[in-house]
Amino acid sequence: MPWFRLMTLRLLLTFAGICILAGCSSTAAARATSVHNRPHSEVAALPRLSAPNRELTLQADEIVSVSHMELSQSASMDGPDPDDPFRESESLSLDLLIAEVQARNPSLAAVQAAWGAAAQKYPQAVALEDPIFQSMYAPQSFTSNSNVQSSYYLGIAQKIPWAGKRGLRGQQANWEASAASHDVGETSLRLAEASRVTFLDYYLNERLRELLDSNTRAAEEFRNIANSKYEANQVTQQDVLQADVELAQLEQRKIELDQEREIAVARLNTLLHRRPDHPLPPPPQTLPQVAELPSASELRDFAVEQRPELHALAARIQAEQTAVELACKEFYPDFEFMGRYDRFWTDKEQRGQVGMNVNVPLNRSRRHAAVQERQFQVQKMRSELDQATDNIRNEVQAAWSRVQGGVRTVRIYDTKILPTANDNLSAARAGYTAGTLDFLRLVEAQRETIALREKHQMAIAELHRRWAELQRAVGGAVSMPPDANAIVVPAETLAIPES
Predict the structure, then answer these.
(1) Structurally, how many domains does the chain consist of?
(2) What is each CA distance from 109 to 103, 114, 194, 319, in whole angstroms?
(3) Mapping DSSP to helix (H, G, I), strand (E, B) and coil, where does residue 435 land?
């Protein structure tokens, strides 16, 4: 009947249009879906290096396009920080600084986003391919003057991989996500180290500025003494001029320290993702006191168990081993099941049909090569893991030795060098006042004391830098030895001793 044929054709066209529109609407819906609301598989624990239990929440509610102008305005970071965590702080806290850097720094946000992207590979890896809708019709059979029945067929087909392939793909995706999670930990460690080192530059600059102020007051006192003796015709004008030269050199040193302070502030603000000249509170007067440092062997073992870099390599090895198993599965065929209703057949009994397609894996040499490629890749990554383990042990041992050497260096300054230099300067000042010593010897004693005090403060900062390096090498917090308490020098002890 013509009306029946026309209705059937309309139904076919309507169904095809619905499929096309459904694809467009599903794409738009996917763009507006919140990333952190999508399912996320749990990452299995490593056999030797366990994966940490972390939860990742991305801050993007939807995927939107950003113009170049918007990126430029965002990157400029001009204006005050409305959430400044140091606004009410009297001094800059190192622990708070590290926490804020890890919360604000874009590099950590980037690896967290990479982890989130890797976590979304699991549902893609285990999902079946989309079913295929099949249709075909003979247009001339739907015309009003046609003498044959309306001819068309409708069908659907679904590909099913060999048993175990989807599970192995999911395991591989899980291991890659686990490795990405440990990349977050490694980046966090390096940010903590960078924060500590830059904080120490800021701290050392403040101590050197205090020392410079004390030395300037002492040099002014020396000049007053020289001027008084010159007016009394006890010395020549050269003593006064030499004192003026010393004061000018100290003023030039102040310019250098001011410049270094601006650089340290800019580095700290860059780590905090703020404009470089954002104001910061002054550093604390003392560095934190901590407990005893473990032995080098204990720290080496701790580092092998804790370093996120080794965890990430171990997870990637597991991913490659899973890829070997998956390559072995490629020797087995995949299936495609289908069913359709075919009105090209005249008899009704022949119209309903089911079928199956199977690929025949005849090219076995290609599959053997793929398995061997993956096996060699596993061997390569195992060697890289062994090399990384050796490097970390060496790194820990070297950092531990530097910390121990730093402790001994600071102790020598505290117990021998600085007391002797202070006594020498006091004796030189007394001798010049009494007229038994010339002004040049006093200036030389002052210069030597200034240089030694600066080296003392640099040795303190260097010790803590080595400690920060050791903490990053170990992969966690490390306590300082008791002798390091000697590095805590109050500001009042920086003054030149009185005669």
Answers:
(1) 1
(2) 8, 9, 16, 24
(3) coil
